[in-house]
Amino acid sequence: MLSFILRRLAIAVPTLILVSVFVFTLQKLLPGDPALILAGEDRDPAAIEFVREKYHLNEPIITQYAYWVQGVVQGDMGVSLRTNQPVLTLIGDKLPVTIQLAAMALIIAFVIGVPAGILSAVKKGTAIDYAANIVALSGLSIPNFWLGIMLILLVSVQLGWLPASGYESPFVDPLRSLETMIMPAFVLGTALAATLMRHTRSAMLGVLKADYVRTARAKGIREVPVILKHAFRNALLPIVTLTALLFGELLGGAVLTEQIFTIPGFGKLIVDAVFTRDYAVVQGVVLCAAAGVILVNLVADVLYFVVNPRMRASL
Amino acid sequence: MSAVSETPAPAYRGGSRSWRKLRSHRSALVGFVIVAFFVTVALLAPVLPIADPAATSWSAVRKAPSAEYLLGTDEIGRDIFSRMIWGARASLIAGVISVLLAVALGVPFGLVAGYFGGWIDQVVSRVTDALLAMPFLILAVALAAFLGPSLTNAMIAIGLAAMPIFVRLTRGQVLSVKTEDYVEGARAIGLTHFAIMLRYILPNVFAPVLVQATLTIATAIILEAALSFLGLGQQPPAPSWGSMLNVAKNFLTQAPWMAWWPGAAIFLVVLGFNLLGDGLRDALDPKET
């Protein structure tokens, strides 16, 4: 067990270091003198010199990286040029909003994707399977920012049922929060639902062929308990692991969803930062997103190991 | 071992059989027709008898679809129909070129990593992991931010973001064939590593890469539209479906048609590539008969 976690960490740590190198290198892509860019609108020579000193821009690039990483490890990702707030504080403020959006989207994706996948596997080759596959493929092909715009057009503009934008914390007004988030969560959830449906279908198809399912049927157990208790419980494991792999997609999707519905989250933060040339914030968001993905995958791997006795036996 | 010289590409033989399979695959055919339609339209854009996509008209601002303006006009009176046709070019070019870039970078790295193994493999795999850890769209947004917003930079960003998929795919494929007898045989007769990779290993990579490339074009088209939608791709006034949607979202109540068509077109062309990719996978998969 411990050796498994250590081996997994031995992969995760270098990955994280490489991500940090990459994120650091991003700022070297900027054309021109970085001190001029980082100093922002304020082109006062003293300010530029201050920035140059502060970010050690006169020193070799390796030293610059070392200083930068040292800061990041201590929780200092720099300061936003626009608001003068520390980048980590900004991200910390926006993160709960995105987590709420992502969690709701994930629930919607599961509620739609998993039953559809089970049904389509059980009814393999029938019209139901065919229809479910067409819907899933459409879900994968539809640009979710367009789906969002179309839903705003229908639900908010035409029918006036839900607000087109805005955000309310669930701790302040839960009902209002649900009202503002349900449509964005649906938009973000549909693409995931399609992927989940496909995963569930193939996992179920594999399990339904297994000997123990045949045995269960031979014992005279009715079809529904066979499917749900014998088959689905065993298919659930790969489904959950694959969901962890979707975490990055969820974060990326949130960027667009938050932009369309004007939700003040993590994704809106990076887009706004791009347009205000707030590079430290852009770097901070990429680094945090990647760290999140690495962590979620690590946890999923360990959980898979804990839950699956066959993996333990193989050690 | 006489088979070595006779079958340089054992995994990929019988192209005509695959072609027959693909043609009989109904959904793949639908995908092919959709893709072919958009490609034709994009290619013919300069010679089609349509309005100038950049011509503004203050007397025709935000006109609903009609006989005169088939798909309506936008906020400064440009003909949406002709902007849609020119927009197809931006989407397809971005999709194809960014995926070509991803393949051109990803396949050689995957080939070398899988073939040589050892520390080369370790380095390439860790870099791939690191790139994969950064969510596709967030990475593309960040790259576009630092490189500057333009269609070219969006393509570079998408290509880099998509590269790891091809590294992993190629590497996995190489690992599964490099211990085959015909590769050992090639090594035994003293061929160089380069020649072995090129003649005996690369052909095995071709089919899965083609399938993945087709599916990745679908993703790349959505990604280009997403970047343009965020204002980080094709810059106005050049037409692109993503940037048309970006403007359209400000006129939802006055001119909803501005939002209908670009999204529908992205959906259709992406669906086409997805169908075609799924069909190719079925047709080229040697395991399924």
Task: Explain what this protein looks like in three dimensions.
- The complex is a heterodimer of chains A (315) and B (289).
- Chain A has 315 residues and is mainly α.
- Chain A folds into two domains: 72 residues, no CATH class; 219 residues, MetI-like (MetI-like fold, Orthogonal Bundle), CATH 1.10.3720.10.
- Chain A has 14 helices and no strands.
- In chain A, α1 runs antiparallel to α13, α7 packs across α8 and α12 runs antiparallel to α13.
- Chain A is globular.
- The mean pLDDT of chain A is 84.
- Chain B is mainly alpha-helical and 289 residues long.
- Chain B is elongated.
- In chain B, α4 runs antiparallel to α5.
- The longest helix of chain B is centred in the middle third of the chain and has 37 residues.
- Chain B has a single domain, classed as MetI-like fold (Orthogonal Bundle).
- The interface between A and B is large, with 52 and 46 residues.
What are the main properties of this structure?
heterodimer, A: 315 residues, mainly alpha, MetI-like fold, 2 domains, B: mainly alpha, 71% helix, elongated
Layout of strands and helices, then pairs:
The complex is a heterodimer of chains A (315) and B (289).
Chain A: H1 2-26, H2 34-38, H3 45-54, H4 61-73, H5 87-122, H6 127-141, H7 144-158, H8 174-208, H9 211-218, H10 223-245, H11 247-260, H12 266-275, H13 279-307, H14 309-313
Helix pairs in contact in A: 1-13, 5-6, 5-8, 5-11, 5-13, 6-8, 7-8, 7-11, 8-10, 8-11, 9-10, 10-13, 11-12, 12-13
Chain B: H1 3-6, H2 15-24, H3 26-44, H4 80-116, H5 118-133, H6 136-147, H7 151-177, H8 181-188, H9 193-229, H10 241-248, H11 257-284
Helix pairs in contact in B: 2-11, 3-4, 3-11, 4-5, 4-7, 4-9, 4-11, 5-7, 6-7, 7-9, 8-9, 9-10, 9-11, 10-11
